[in-house]
Amino acid sequence: MAQIRLKNVSKRWGKFVGVDNFNLDIADQEFLVLLGPSGCGKTTTMRMIAGLEEITEGEVWIGDQMVNKLEPKDRDISMVFQSYGLYPNMTVYENIRFPLKVRKVPKEQHHERVMAASKMVELDDFLERRPAALSGGQRQRVALARAIVREPNAFLMDEPLSNLDAKLRVSTRAQIKNLHHTLKRTTVYVTHDQIEAMTLADRVVVMNKGVVQQVGTPMEIYDQPANTFVASFIGSPAMNLVNGMIADGVFTSDGIRIEGLPHRASGAVTLGFRAEDANLAEANGQIEAPIYTVELLGEATMLSMRVAGELVSIKVGKDYRAEIGELARIAIPASACHIFDQSTGARIEA
Amino acid sequence: MPNKTFFAFILPSLIAMVLFIALPIVSVVVQSLYVSHEQILVEVENCQPFGGCSTELRVDSAATAALRDEQPLGRFNGLGTYVNRAHLATTELGVILSSERSFGEKWGQILNLPFYKALIFTLVYCFFVTPLAMALGFTIALAVNALPKVTKGPIIFFSLLPMIITPLIGSLILYWMLSPNGILGATIQHIFNDPTLSLRASPALTWGALLTYGVWTNAPFSFVVFYAGLQTVPGDTLESAMIDGASRWERIRYVIIPHLAPLATFVALVQLMDNFRVFEPIVGFSAEANATSLSWLIYNDLTGDSQQFGSAGATSVLTILGVVILLSPVLVRTWREFKHKAV
């Protein structure tokens, strides 16, 4: 059992705030992803859970124990690092065995446990090699095996896929997801890649500048972003955001007019809609603007056009062809629109 | 890079190496094969007005000077200098070893042969001072690395002092402190309750003082190199080890020491070479009665009224051979690694 609880956790270096008043309950066996751009405090948060970073304020609980003052080794967690953190002078076998050795696990268990862990990550054939003789993906699998061999209560993973090439990233990602399913351990995973977050997480925490922006399931975060930051961070391409005025459920701005929006909002707002929610209009569209670029994606075609000073992207059928500068009419259903307060960026619920 | 460009690139250093390393070594080897001419003696008949005549031998200064001018290298002696009593002393050594005396007595006699006396101290100095100075330097580096930033600067400065102080002055200071009325000397006499205990009287104390001085003066070099090396230890690996459950000592043993091993080889090489030519402390401590070194022998040959270039040359060549033998295991290993990597 390893729930992880962060209560009012803050990290400051002098006047610089790394993480500000972080509150979160991570359930046992949950796969939680901390997502955000570089410098948003996600890694710092994870390092505070691991005990590698001192907590300036607040409490971290693992299970029913407050761990603020505990050494990393006493927190019963294991961690996978972006740059693997392997021991270069030891073989793969010795690397995986290391936690058992230094924790004085009875020697007769070592072989069996190392073999089980290495089998789980398909490393059986490389046990006698040194890390230098392995590819990036294999090295990261050694790091994974070393993390699981001890069977800790929780795993912490700090951008484990960032150093891998795109293809390997997909397969290792699948492997991590499968491992979590098999081992059923609480996992905290840090990434700046929203696709990793969407594919792996039970819940995602989106962070920016040390502050939690939204906590929710991947679908919640995608479908109901709490603010313009989350909206622009999640999804590929990011959500289109257009500033304008709303009154009586009608949003207007330069080159765009959408009717039938909720009446609660009025005044200066930011309207958001996703590229895939818009489409070509048969007759009168909500947007009428010249095409800025046409990009062929294979499974679809991406149009972009300038609306109210912003470039917006529209995903249309893969056979659509048009010239740059041609006038296009775009239909955006009111139900697919998100409305945010223009000054605070916060979502205005319908 | 084309061969020609490469050659042009290294030519200046090649010339410098030939001029300042190869030629002096050749010159030393040649000089070691010669000894200075003996003086030319002439028989002179000396007649007194009332005492009759007698013959006596006299030095023919003019002829000697003329001969020395004509052949400034001296007389060719082959390997004679190498095997004489002042050097390898093969005859004396044979006699000592084939005698019926006990091992202790034989050892004492060998220690009386100047070359072996110097060689034994030089080797003891090398193999005692090098590892201890490295261990001390490493310990200081670990300690300084763990200090808060503010205190690091001054502590690093103090740790480097022994390296900054001229060896002769450093050893003189310790010598004075160890003299009977110095703070350490007086304390030692008090502790052992022996008013006659002094550096001059006790070879053990002299050796102890020289070795202590050696560790003190050599540690800063290891410290600087290891401290620089510590800054390159990968943080992720150290943190992995922390989370894996390694104690501070285990992190040093399994992460830091393997990471610094190539650096340690370098430090050991440099320190061994450095310590093999130990010289200043022997002069500083006026220790020649109890301990001499190969470098001191060379110095001794070259000072005084008559410089014995042949003898100094022979000791120098033997010193060079000693350094080669000393470093050969490391050099062979490096070469093997190089070949292994090349394959």
From TrEMBL, chain A:
It comes from the Bacteria. One of its GO terms (cellular component) is ATP-binding cassette (ABC) transporter complex, substrate-binding subunit-containing. One of its GO terms (molecular function) is ABC-type transporter activity. Pfam families: ABC_tran. Belongs to the ABC transporter superfamily. GO terms for biological process: carbohydrate transport. It is found in: Cell inner membrane. It comes from Devosia subaequoris. SUPFAM superfamilies: MOP-like, P-loop containing nucleoside triphosphate hydrolases. It is a peripheral membrane protein. Residues 4-234 form the ABC transporter domain. This is Multiple sugar transport system ATP-binding protein. PANTHER family: MALTODEXTRIN IMPORT ATP-BINDING PROTEIN MSMX (PTHR43875), TREHALOSE IMPORT ATP-BINDING PROTEIN SUGC (PTHR43875:SF15). Its main location: membrane. Coiled coil: none annotated. Keywords: ATP-binding, Cell membrane, Membrane, Nucleotide-binding, Sugar transport, Translocase, Transport. The lineage of its organism: Bacteria, Pseudomonadati, Pseudomonadota, Alphaproteobacteria, Hyphomicrobiales. CDD domains: ABC_MalK_N. The keyword Phosphoprotein does not apply. The keyword Cell membrane applies.
UniProtKB/TrEMBL annotation, chain B:
The chain crosses the membrane at residues 6-30, 118-143, 155-178, 252-273, 309-332. It is found in: Cell membrane. Coiled coil: none annotated. One of its GO terms (cellular component) is plasma membrane. One of its GO terms (biological process) is transmembrane transport. It is a multi-pass membrane protein. InterPro entries: ABC_transporter_permease (IPR051393), MetI-like (IPR000515), MetI-like_sf (IPR035906). Residues 119-330 form the ABC transmembrane type-1 domain. Keywords: Cell membrane, Membrane, Sugar transport, Transmembrane, Transmembrane helix, Transport. Pfam families: BPD_transp_1 (PF00528). The keyword Ribosomal protein does not apply. Its main location: membrane. Belongs to the binding-protein-dependent transport system permease family. This is Multiple sugar transport system permease protein. It comes from Devosia subaequoris.
